[in-house]
Write a structure and sequence with these properties.
This protein is an all-alpha fold. It has one domain. It contains 8 helices and no strands. The protein starts with a helix and ends in a 29-residue tail after the last helix.
Length: 226
């Protein structure tokens, strides 16, 4: 593969697909955190109204979706668009990706002084050992971290399901582990999204800007007219 502007554009398209896909995992995590707080604060009331089965259903589905969302980003087959496949291609062609090439993708603007802080240079330098080309060593190390995080998420998911099977629907023991692992995977993904798109991403997901949790203050079933 020859890395040129067309290949970089393909990687940018992939990056957007990855951000959207994993962003859903992050957004689901935030919604589930809100749901979990409601359960923690109203556990006795939920139990009195036979709500434990529904709560466990929501939690099991969240855990399964989170795990599968991460697994999708680890696929490297030719039919998948994933973070791991993207990193694999970049690692294999790292010797072609020079700072000079990067500056053809994101050229300096007239008001940028190359002797001062230039985001293009600083971004590139966090992925290079010699300040000339991307480092396959760094990318491969990040791939190893991604696989480790996925393994941690799988373990947390297994522990969570085990707790739910025991009827411990009020437990927070493993959800904190799951959240931490997703946060770290999110940060790793954003690191490469920034390199490829030239944009700063603090998270793949977006924060809800409307009061979605208001539904918990109303019956799910609309009262019938008297």
């Amino acid at each position: 593969m020859k890395v040129d502007a067309n290949v970089w554009k393909k990687w940018q398209d992939w990056a957007e697909r990855i951000r959207e896909d994993f962003g859903q995992v992050v957004e689901d995590r935030d919604v589930h955190e809100g749901f979990r707080r409601v359960v923690q604060e109203n556990g006795d009331w939920i139990d009195e109204n036979q709500g434990a089965l529904f709560v466990d259903f929501i939690k099991r589905n969240y855990v399964g979706n989170a795990f599968m969302g991460v697994r999708r980003q680890l696929k490297v087959d030719d039919d998948s668009i994933s973070l791991m496949r993207l990193l694999r291609q970049m690692a294999d062609q790292a010797h072609q990706i020079t700072l000079d090439f990067y500056l053809t993708i994101f050229p300096l603007k007239p008001d940028q002084d190359p002797d001062r802080f230039v985001w293009q240079n600083e971004t590139f330098r966090s992925f290079t050992d010699d300040r000339v080309t991307l480092s396959s060593r760094i990318i491969n190390e990040d791939m190893r971290k991604a696989r480790e995080l996925a393994a941690e998420i799988e373990k947390a998911a297994d522990r969570t399901v085990a707790h739910l099977q025991k009827g411990e629907h009020k437990s927070n023991v493993t959800f904190d582990d799951l959240r931490s692992s997703i946060d770290h995977f999110d940060a790793l993904a954003c690191r490469y999204l920034g390199l490829i798109t030239g944009k700063g991403w603090s998270s793949c997901g977006a924060k809800a800007v409307f009061p979605w949790s208001q539904i918990f203050r109303h019956p799910f079933v609309k009262p019938t007219a008297a």
